[in-house]
Amino acid sequence: MLRGISKVRIGVRDQERAKRFWSETLGCDVVQDQTYGDERWLEVRLPDGVVLVLEQSDGPDPTAAPGQPNTAVFLACDDVDATWRELTGRGVEFVQEPIDMPFGRWALLTDTEGNRFPLLAAAG
User: Which of 13, 54, 82, 108 could, after both became Cys, cross-link 42 (CB 3.0–4.6 A)?
Assistant: First the structure.
């Protein structure tokens, strides 16, 4: 039977820059960084165990509406406002500061590669 999501792929233009952002700025663990041929397999693990594969690409979807997520990944935290303050202090750019929406409080952060991720309070 299925147990959940194993890994999620995120397209990045610069894998080394993305690795620094996810590991040094956001505090994720680098769990794999290997080259094979001319390619590189790079994974980071979020605190809840989900692994992101930082895959070399042309970057995020250029057709996504400005101010909206351009990835399928929603990031969870305990407190949106506190996390926003902490990450802003670390230099993370937010294209939307915390606001209340019909589905809850959220903010929208961007990584060094132009990917935009919603930040929401974890359910439960």
Answer: 54
